[in-house]
Fold this sequence. Notes:
Blueprint: H1 7-27, H2 29-40, H3 45-74, H4 80-98, H5 104-127, H6 129-132, H7 138-165, H8 167-170, H9 174-199, H10 212-229, H11 231-260, H12 265-289, H13 295-312, H14 319-347, H15 353-363, H16 369-382, H17 385-390, H18 392-410
Helix pairs in contact: 1-7, 1-9, 2-3, 2-5, 2-11, 3-4, 3-5, 3-10, 3-11, 3-15, 3-16, 4-5, 4-9, 5-15, 7-9, 7-12, 7-14, 11-12, 11-14, 11-15, 11-16, 11-18, 12-14, 13-14, 13-18
Amino acid sequence: MKFKLTSIEKKWVLYDVGNSAFTMMVATIFPIYFNSLAGGAGISDVDYLAYWGYATSICTLLVAFLGPTLGAVADTKNFKKIIFTIAMGVGVFGCVLLGFLSSWLWFLGVFIIAKTGYSASLVFYDAMLTDVTEPERMDSVSSHGFAWGYIGSCIPFVACLVLVLGADSIGIGMQTAMILAFIITALWWLGSSVPLLCSYKQRYYVDAGTHVVRNSFRRLGYTFVELVKDKHIFIFLLAFFFYIDGVYTVIDMATAYGQALGLDSTGLLLALLVTQIVAFPAVLIFSRLVKKVKAENIITVCIAAYFCIAVYAYWLDSQVDFWILAVLVGMFQGTIQALSRSYFAKIIPADKSGEYFGIYDICGKGASVLGTALVSFLSQVTGSVNFGVSALSVMFLIGLVLFRYAAKLNRG
Length: 412
């Protein structure tokens, strides 16, 4: 039987379509533009990659602090949508502002603010999954979010690509093209948020009481205590920290990695567009497969595949190699994200989803603090970006072992 989304599920999925446009820009045009700004200021390729990685790591640290605390407040009745809207608004405004900056340092600073707003919005968006659907539908709904997000993000990305690569033929300067590209991305993101904001209702919540913030911090403290006792959740989060950090490092630094190797910018952008296109059917295929095969087994396959991808990166030195890497990443990227999100949503208390997803996003969506820092540090120390990226294989291996142990605990 064909799986059909309900009205609210479709609106929830639509936000994935919108915010994925920003993700696509961060993975492609942003680092290329930053590279041109940094290059103009005399920054070397290795240092450029390192600074980009450090900025991404700073975003993670900010979300690591804000996520659980704001998540605890968001679990209070009628607060989740408000905080989600503020975080999304910061990201959208920052995205627009980036197009008007010509200093590499200012660009990096505003990027951190915009990326933090984006990542924080995903804490509450992910937590909404428990409100918009039922446990038995979570794997499929989460998968549809990522699938349509990947294919939907291609629409504004192609428009931005035409502007940036064809600026001269269109008759506009590169600066104008970048401004328009950032505005298009921001409007696409904002527009996709409106249907969800108009229809979302928080089904699971904690009553407000008289001291919302103080009570939220108290609940958060209890949650951390419970988390240590709930060993299957704790070990899963530990596993997730390692393997998803590796995944997001690949996403965040793919273009920067290719640029540092001296590969053609146009080819890199087209290769990453292929990643999005491949990811769309791949996620939907796995979402059908999950009805017959346990989600934990599919996640295991995805982690193992990423381990092989990281090892392969050590020998990457040509445009063809990068295209192969892009296709392989597209086959598993969306599935590991989607099924990890729904797997976690099913093993946590629904009325504490904001708190728990705040902790979850420390390990994941906020970006990859350990992975990006590891790649940046090893690249600078060894002078080889290949060695830095291939070191991610260790993170996937640790994540795989811990995840299998967590799955065993969850089965009882």
